[in-house]
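Here comes a specimen:
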Amino acid sequence: MLLSSFSGQPLEAGLDEAGRGCLAGPVFAAAVVLPLDFACDYLNDSKQMTARRRDRAREQICREAVAWAVAEASLEEIASFNIAQASYLAMHRAVDALGVRPTHLIVDGNRFRPHATLPHTCHIGGDARFQSIAAASVLAKTFRDDRMHELAAAYPQYHWEQNAGYPTAQHRAAIREHGPTEHHRLGFRLL
């Protein structure tokens, strides 16, 4: 069972990203403040959930959260700063877009670029330990998957509706055959 809070503060925000290891598309991040009594039986790290459960959880999170926001960093930002810094940039944008001012940030992972005014704590595997980080994981992944489905319609040969831009054998074979698109991260090892 996931924990409702780390700090015990009612405006604690969970942060997570999606798409860091992809070969194509922007990196997304989400920030979520949940009520301390939030309950979703199947909420977990988004990678451990089925697509159907992620979609159902997304609806509930968006409906019941105290506040939530999703943001992204572009391919140009990924190329300029590197993927880690672009992920932190997307997280900061999500925090700054929240409708409330959080009192503490809990971040999935072991590193984070500190926010200018908010304290934070990093948690390795936090998306499988804390509800708000799991909720951020779900929102970041589902919103990014939506974007990759949109791009897949224009570039069906890359199968982004299935692989979301991750380095699968099928995706790499398509890059080998068709070359990279303007949505590929050219600074990454594509093949």
